[in-house]
Amino acid sequence: MRRFYTLAGVRNISDKEIRAIRRKAKSGDPVACYQLAQLEMAWHWEENYIDVANDYLLKALNGGVDDAIVLLALMLYRGEGEYNPEKAESLIAAGFDKRNEYAMFTQLTNVIYGRFGHEKKLEEADNILKMLLDNDDCPHWHMLRGDALYALGKREQAVYHYEQALEGGLTEVYGDLAIARGVELDGTLVDWDAMMDTLEEGNEVSDVASMYYTALEDCSLYEQCEEDETEQKDSLRELIMTYLQECSDYKHIGANELLGDIYREGLYDVPVDYRKAYDHYSMGANYNGGSCYSKLHQMLSNGELSLSSGKQEALDTFALLGARLHEEDMIIETIKAYRAGRLAEHAAEIEKYHLPAYRNLSASEKDRDTVSIDGSTISFKQLTAIASLMITLGNADGLHDDETNMIVIFLRNFVPDEAKQKELICNAIEMHKEEAVEIIKGLDQTTKQGISNAMSLIMLADGEISDAEAAMFMELMFDCGIPDPDTQEWLNWLSEDSNSEEEIFSNE
Prior knowledge:
Elements: H1 7-11, H2 15-26, H3 30-43, H4 49-62, H5 67-78, H6 85-97, H7 101-113, H8 122-135, H9 139-151, H10 155-167, H11 174-182, H12 192-204, H13 208-224, H14 230-249, H15 253-265, H16 274-286, H17 290-301, H18 311-324, H19 328-339, H20 347-359, H21 363-366, H22 380-394, H23 401-412, H24 418-430, H25 433-441, H26 445-460, H27 467-480, H28 488-497, H29 501-504
């Protein structure tokens, strides 16, 4: 059953073995049903492969095959059918507690790679694997320990465990073994010959990772060629495309993404072909490549592809599916779509999983959500901060309809699109006052004057300035370095009110 722990293992099962598994599954054998479900998810033989796999999984579960629960959890993590990472986590945890080997393998993989939103816990994973290996010289434990040790910068120890996994018959480690033999974690090359020799050994047994890494090395060699070295470049290009296509035939996500990049950008003197790029990104996405969803989204947004209809629906679908795979820019796009009133049918999922993930993105990551608007020097994020302080000011004595309308009118000068306005206001409501103040402090005085004037109009919208509004405005002016308003409306109000500006903004 260990062969079914990894996609590489499943895809290495021979046609003869597959025919035998099919025969047993038809007769109702629960283990064969589980194996056929794994094969269906690995190859997508049927158009409705998820339904087919679920049917086999149900038979396996009814037959008491515990490993079927782990595959079900993986499908829940990825949104293959139902998206429910909480339930997936519960199933894996229960399996781990029962010391189900596949559940343990899956959870250790999650924390080594930070998969499905898990926090990386390399030291913890390494300690567990060390204990497991004390009791069972399993090649899969050696492989995972190699992964953990290499990520910890312990290259030589990683090499040892990859070699042990290989001796145990796990040929899928050739690629990782090659990298560990040849390259430090920081990218320093220590033994190019050892790396290439190991990759060649992996290529001889059709290890997909080895073919992929060989293609990457050929890409690097191509980039080092002089302009006039046409024969060398032609030879390398052929090797690159041959290796990558073979990897693509095995549904390798990285190879399909790179092929997409090559055809999209015309890399290595390959003619640009957006259709082929789209096809390879689509294959990578269909096999849970989150970054492929990002690139499909980019292609459609940039007009590199055209749809006769349903463009926005396609963009939103790419965003949501990418968000489920924890692709950060797709999380951002999902939240944008949701705040614009789309993806409403997924509201519960977005509120429970993707909105918290969005809030946890770092400031630098959220900067990707910042755009220039109508040629203005005010960025989306800066405008969000301005709107946030306006809302804070209005809320000082309860935000009135007239004040709300005045805020909307101000924002409309920069963001005419209503959906974008809604998104901006939602972002503004969520932004902490302290963050907004820091952003406004960094603006130039001309912009600050405009903010001051706009805020004065908001306060005047309902015909009076309350003590709470005055106190809040004074506080914001001081904290942000905002000058006094200089609009005629403000000056007229001062003169009509018979109070001096100093009195209005006194502490009394």
